[in-house]
């Protein structure tokens, strides 16, 4: 396991919020892959062919998606602003025998972004109460997709009862079409998914609720 802790090491509002958040969360919460993301990746992303195919997981939390991708053979850069979350991702990778394919990397994505191009870029529920240039970050995520690669975004389109935003009546969510438009992709991209399916979600206390997700998946064209 390699871990980049040289960036975003100073305390920011985002880092402080998410450190406090993870301090109060069961370390086992979020260690399974997001089912919506897993379905999209399984259907749309080619399986790694032993060529060191690279994946980037933005806002990885406890690493459920990153560890799942690594188990399929992806070489995964797992990014979060929380050092606590990344330590747990690293421990999970070690325990699963995936340390050589999971690379925790600390970034406040409003300020720094991982270098390089990736065959798969994912962001599951990239929402935060801290003000950040969210659309700018997601456009940067699209820029990081290699030719022929895939960007998959899974986002809240409704509030679950256990959400840290539950009770805020002024919360609104963009439509999947609005999210797609905000990426400003231009030519050279093909839309694979842009919809808002419902599903039954399970909260940290085992409670369930019907929620809606925005799912956006776009593929960058191969270069001639």
From TrEMBL:
<keyword id="KW-0949">S-adenosyl-L-methionine</keyword>
<keyword id="KW-0489">Methyltransferase</keyword>
<dbReference type="Pfam" id="PF13649">
    <property type="entry name" value="Methyltransf_25"/>
</dbReference>
<dbReference type="InterPro" id="IPR029063">
    <property type="entry name" value="SAM-dependent_MTases_sf"/>
</dbReference>
<dbReference type="InterPro" id="IPR041698">
    <property type="entry name" value="Methyltransf_25"/>
</dbReference>
<keyword id="KW-0808">Transferase</keyword>
<feature type="domain" description="Methyltransferase">
    <location>
        <begin position="56"/>
        <end position="149"/>
    </location>
</feature>
<protein>
    <submittedName>
        <fullName>Methyltransferase</fullName>
    </submittedName>
</protein>
<dbReference type="GO" id="GO:0032259">
    <property type="term" value="P:methylation"/>
</dbReference>
<dbReference type="GO" id="GO:0008168">
    <property type="term" value="F:methyltransferase activity"/>
</dbReference>
